[in-house]
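Q: I have 188 residues here and want to know how they pack in 3D. Can you give me a structure?
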Amino acid sequence: MVATKVNPGIRPYPSQYVGSWTMRGGTQVTIRPIRPDDEPLMVKFHATLSDRTVYLRYFTSISLPRRTVHERLAHICHSDHERETVLVADYKDPQTGEHHILAVGRLNKLQVNGEGELAVLVSDEYQHKGLGTELLRRLIQVARDEKLHRLVAEMLHDNLVMQSIFKRLGFRLWSIDDPGSVQAALNL
């Protein structure tokens, strides 16, 4: 019998966060943690984003080639589950069997003791179907499971949809030093 060594510094894939969910309109997706083999799907996902959606998420315009460069996506897809959780909404086309990522949500643990930062990005075609809200709900649960005490997010002042979602989820919002941004926080 051969003993298997487990590296205590590397967490296994968090399969407890895999689950199905149905969007407004009836489209069913699997919400799950990102995997290394998702990189080609992430390239296709980024191609579905409008310039406005990219600007609202990243606070600047970033070209598709820059967003989909291998090094960047490899870093995102090889998530360190100890420091971050990245969830994707995976849709399997019933006709072709092809998978598509429709949205990405991220929880980064901050250096500040017990805090995490949230961000969500939803493909333009699937916005306003509850997907961003559901990703945030699940990331809030991950934060609770990880014993975080506080979650924060920053968004552009004119991103009223995200502000509304954060308010509905119980976050408190306020303006910060940068007049173009709004901060959201939730004590867990």
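Q: Anything worth noting?
A: Residues 131-145 form the longest helix (15 residues). The beta strands are 19-22, 28-33, 84-92, 99-109, 115-122, 150-156, 172-175, 181-187.
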